[in-house]
């Protein structure tokens, strides 16, 4: 079996060690003898190359980098939406989800129009409003998810389901206990940095969905020894601060 992973703007949107998520997806596939190819989805990428992707990943970026990426990303929006509508999974962490909603209002008041794939809006209220920073715990499909958030923007969902429910932390906005969003098989989350190493169950969900959509049948992934990953998960789950 083979998978092609598209990586959105790796040179612009790889802040906070987000590339660790790519490493996890690659290794968890390779350990199962699944061949993996990475395609950078950037200014030079064609629609045909995007259409060949079985999974899409987007990482975090600061406002300036998001501004540089969004004009080009808008040109790719219809192609990406076609992928997602047929079930191709995606993981978008930290700043990437803000570009997939209707718009993101930056800290200096600039409005970046997004792809509108996720029915949500994001706003940065400036320096007068404290950032959402700290370790997080969420509830997802009756399982725990751990992460770390550091964002000034607040996201408000409309007709879209949240990815998870906040147990600890701020999540989307610190008000309604929602965290991230889900569109078809695409996950958006404010958990940035290397999110998947501490959450192997989320990584395997993405891999299994990608294989299922590509090969047209449910795929049972071979189990791996995740003892170290779950030790990290448990440590973060019970960390007091």
TrEMBL record:
Pathway: Cell wall biogenesis; peptidoglycan biosynthesis. It catalyses: beta-D-GlcNAc-(1->4)-Mur2Ac(oyl-L-Ala-gamma-D-Glu-L-Lys-D-Ala-D-Ala)-di-trans,octa-cis-undecaprenyl diphosphate + L-glutamine + ATP + H2O = beta-D-GlcNAc-(1->4)-Mur2Ac(oyl-L-Ala-D-isoglutaminyl-L-Lys-D-Ala-D-Ala)-di-trans,octa-cis-undecaprenyl diphosphate + L-glutamate + ADP + phosphate + H(+); L-glutamine + H2O = L-glutamate + NH4(+). One of its GO terms (molecular function) is glutaminase activity. CDD domains: GATase1_CobQ. The lipid II isoglutaminyl synthase complex catalyzes the formation of alpha-D-isoglutamine in the cell wall lipid II stem peptide. The GatD subunit catalyzes the hydrolysis of glutamine to glutamate and ammonia. The resulting ammonia molecule is channeled to the active site of MurT. Substrate binds at residue 131. The gene is gatD. Residues 4-199 form the CobB/CobQ-like glutamine amidotransferase domain. Forms a heterodimer with MurT. The keyword Transferase does not apply. Belongs to the CobB/CobQ family. GatD subfamily. One of its GO terms (biological process) is peptidoglycan biosynthetic process. The keyword Ligase applies. The lineage of its organism: Bacteria, Candidatus Gottesmaniibacteriota. Pfam families: GATase_3. Keywords: Cell shape, Cell wall biogenesis/degradation, Glutamine amidotransferase, Hydrolase, Ligase, Peptidoglycan synthesis. The active site is at 94 (nucleophile), 192. This is Lipid II isoglutaminyl synthase (glutamine-hydrolyzing) subunit GatD. Its EC number is 6.3.5.13, 3.5.1.2. InterPro entries: Class_I_gatase-like (IPR029062), CobQ_GATase1 (IPR033949), GATase_3 (IPR011698), Lipid_II_synth_GatD (IPR043702).
């Amino acid at each position: 079996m083979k998978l092609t992973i598209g990586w959105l703007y790796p040179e612009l949107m790889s802040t906070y060690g987000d590339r660790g998520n790519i490493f996890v997806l690659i290794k968890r596939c390779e350990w199962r003898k699944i061949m993996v190819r990475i395609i950078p989805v950037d200014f030079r990428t064609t629609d045909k190359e995007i259409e060949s992707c079985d999974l899409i990943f987007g990482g975090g970026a600061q406002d300036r980098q998001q501004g540089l990426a969004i004009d080009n990303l808008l040109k790719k929006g219809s192609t990406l939406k076609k992928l997602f509508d047929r079930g191709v999974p995606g993981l978008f962490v930290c700043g990437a989800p803000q570009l997939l909603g209707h718009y993101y209002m930056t800290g200096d008041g600039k409005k970046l129009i997004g792809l509108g794939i996720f029915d949500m809006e994001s706003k940065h209220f400036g320096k007068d409003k404290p950032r959402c920073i700290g370790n997080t715990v969420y509830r997802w499909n009756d399982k725990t998810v751990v992460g770390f958030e550091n964002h000034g923007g607040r996201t408000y969902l409309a007709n879209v389901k949240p990815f998870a429910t906040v147990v600890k932390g701020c999540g989307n906005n610190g008000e309604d206990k929602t965290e991230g969003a889900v569109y078809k098989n695409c996950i958006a989350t404010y958990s940035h940095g290397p999110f998947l190493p501490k959450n192997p169950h989320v990584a395997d969900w993405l891999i299994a969905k990608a294989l299922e959509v590509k090969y047209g049948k449910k795929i049972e992934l071979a189990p791996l020894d995740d003892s170290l990953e779950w030790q990290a998960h448990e440590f973060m789950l019970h960390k007091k601060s």
